[in-house]
Amino acid sequence: MKFISISTATLIAVLISNTALAQFTPNPNLATAHFSSTASTNISLQEISATKGLTARIVKLLKDNTDGGVVGLYLKQVKGSVLASSQSQTTFYPASTIKVLQHFHAMRAVEAGNVSLDSTKVKVYPNPPDSCSDNHAGQNFNNDTLRETLAKMMKNSDNQSTNAIQELFGNGNASIGRNAINKTAHNVIGMSKNSAVNHKSGCGGPSNNPANSLTLVDLGKLYEKVATGVFSSNSTRDTFYNLMIRSPGQITTVINEEAAKIGLNANIIQSFKNQVRTAVKAGGYTTGNGTKYNSIGGWVRLPFKKNGVVKSQEYVFGIFIDQATKINENFGVGLASSELLRDEIRAALTTFK
């Protein structure tokens, strides 16, 4: 196999040269996108071709099912290479997808002993206008445990619980809480300044100035940090995942389809499924004029078998649809992310044959 030395910037130019790929342009309503790295890396010609093909296929899938706006995707092997990428450093409005950053900050505080999942009480204002307000005088609230609050935020995508988390870590002041969360994003995770929590959840959406923003590369950094040991104990990491949505969703459909193609029996298929692990957070927002913002990010672990021994491989991924005027019925970022993972699922299943 021949290898060439190629700069990151050159590689990106190669990957987006196919006309099926989206032009690398920033979201005009958010921060300007950019590639900051020019470091060289060794990559095979075959790997360039495979990455380009997967990227083009998913971009086409996204564009065929949307009108207007910008679409992006990102798939990276944990501790490994980027497998697919388009608009991955373009800022987008993440809606509830950014709640995972607030979850990360909270779990760091739990591990540090600053708060407790079961003894720390969180004031959650259940009335949405009250929750969006910064003055809670005379307003009714619920006293939920931190564990309950995080589960509602991550599993139910409850906006009022999310806003309560911002206030908790600002000692009642959501703006101070957001500043603390953003310091974690930039100083602990290594996110760029293009990614930040700038306002409460469910309170004005992308009309806020500045609005919440993310890039897929930054989102991938968060999930990879969790997978590679940012928490000092596996227990904290597992709790981080368990407070999220763990169902593989449409990944199961891809497993069934690919397993059938290679003739795996039902017992092997079920054994494979039993070893798949996922954790995801998605978000969506539609403005009054019908402009749509949908996104998803997550982590997945797939089992690979070699010489009868299973060794798992982990991935981080993300998809966004930003400022679309239409998204086709029965299509969404969950389906798109399962297609993004199809090649890796097929490769993993093949080792069980």
Descriptive account of the structure:
The protein is an alpha+beta fold and 353 residues long. The protein folds into two domains: 234 residues, no CATH class; 114 residues, Beta-lactamase, CATH 3.40.710. It is built from 13 helices and eleven strands. The protein has a five-stranded antiparallel β-sheet. Strands 1-2 form a two-stranded antiparallel sheet. A hairpin with a 4-residue loop joins strand 4 and strand 5. Helix 5 packs across helix 6 and helix 6 crosses helix 7.
Shape: globular
User: How many H/I helices?
Assistant: 13
Measured distance between first and last alpha carbons = 26 Å
Gyration radius over CA: 21 Å
Secondary structure: number of strands: 11
Q: Name the beta content range.
A: 15-25%
Low-confidence stretches: 1-48
Helix content: 40-55%
Adjacency order of strands in the biggest sheet? 5-4-10-9-8
Tell me the count of domains: 2
User: Could you tell me the mean pLDDT?
Assistant: 89
Content-based structural category: alpha+beta
Which series of helices and strands comes N to C?
Answer: EHEHEEEHEHEHHHHHHHEEEEHH
The profile of the biggest β sheet is: 5 strands, antiparallel
Features:
353 residues, alpha+beta, Beta-lactamase, two-stranded antiparallel ribbon, 13 helices, 11 strands, 22% strand, disordered N terminus
